[in-house]
Amino acid sequence: MRRALIIGNWKMNKTVGEAVEFARALAASLPDPVGRDVAIAPPFTALYALAPVLRATAIALCAQDVHGEDRGAFTGEVSAPMLLDVGCRFGLAGHSERRRLFGESNEDINRKVKALLRAGLTPVLCVGESLEEREADQTCSVVRRQLKEGLNNLPADDIRRTIVAYEPVWAIGTGRTAAPEQAQDVHRFIRQFIGHMAGNDRAGEVRILYGGSVSPENAGALMAQEDIDGVLVGGASLDVDSFRKIILY
Ligand code: PEP
């Protein structure tokens, strides 16, 4: 049984004070137990302050990015052991904004996934096609390559521990969501492909999240799909009420 997981990706939003205020309000508004896993991915600057606020709650911390090496001369970067040290449980790797705006390759992302696993964090490997790729009927080939190279050389049990987030680039921050059945088709494909890489039993345990303009209005229909095990939420996670509605849908 795969437990639902909802992650809020705040991107480059919220000061430390705003992040703490949000976390307190969200934690106070959720029932105990929540019945699903919840995490927020604030900017790096807010992680340390949020850890004690979230410690006694059901909300976990997720990093938005990580460097592939554990330490060294990499000015501006943050390593997986550092993220563990400030209380993170999850880390995103290969968000489409990192791929598109910062030129991250599948090889870079593979190093990030491995670094997160080495540190004992759970990687959330983001995959997804652009609008041009979808229109050229390349969705499956693009996603297959991102999975194959992003999970390259990982032992099957590490693949089982990894979470995949399918985020069609054309649906991120655009207000355009994939129809639930359209998303389900890609999620089924992802699970089948992971089955080739790690065996069907392990693939059956991998959580596959959907991301792309998720809102309180569409979250329930998306999560009702057989292979959609939760959502990765950007814009709608910045407001306590809309994020709470998505968590509890
Ligand atoms: C995201 O950034 O991962 C995302 C899905 O953003 P949004 O929900 O705003 O489309």
Q: Which secondary structure elements does this structure contain, and how are they paired or packed?
A:
Blueprint: E1 5-9, H1 16-29, E2 37-41, H2 44-54, E3 59-63, H3 80-85, E4 88-93, H4 96-102, H5 106-119, E5 122-127, H6 131-135, H7 139-150, H8 156-161, E6 163-166, H9 180-198, H10 200-203, E7 208-211, H11 219-223, E8 230-233, H12 240-248
Parallel strand pairs: 1-2, 1-8, 2-3, 3-4, 4-5, 5-6, 6-7, 7-8
Helix pairs in contact: 1-2, 1-12, 5-7, 7-9
Bound molecules: phosphoenolpyruvate.
Residues 9, 167, 172-173, 211-214, 232-236 line the site of phosphoenolpyruvate.
What features would you describe in this structure?
The structure is a single chain. By secondary structure, this protein is an alpha/beta fold. It has a single domain, classed as TIM Barrel (Alpha-Beta Barrel), CATH 3.20.20.70. It contains 12 helices and 8 strands. The chain has helices spanning 16-29, 44-54, 80-85, 96-102, 106-119, 131-135, 139-150, 156-161, 180-198, 200-203, 219-223, 240-248; strands spanning 5-9, 37-41, 59-63, 88-93, 122-127, 163-166, 208-211, 230-233. It has an 8-stranded parallel barrel, surrounded by 5 helices. Helix 1 (16-29) packs parallel to helix 2 (44-54), helix 1 packs across helix 12 (240-248) and helix 5 (106-119) crosses helix 7 (139-150). The longest helix is centred in the C-terminal third of the chain and has 19 residues, at 180-198. The two termini are 19 Å apart. The protein binds phosphoenolpyruvate (PEP). Phosphoenolpyruvate (PEP) binds next to strand 8. Phosphoenolpyruvate is lined by residues 9, 167, 172-173, 211-214, 232-236.
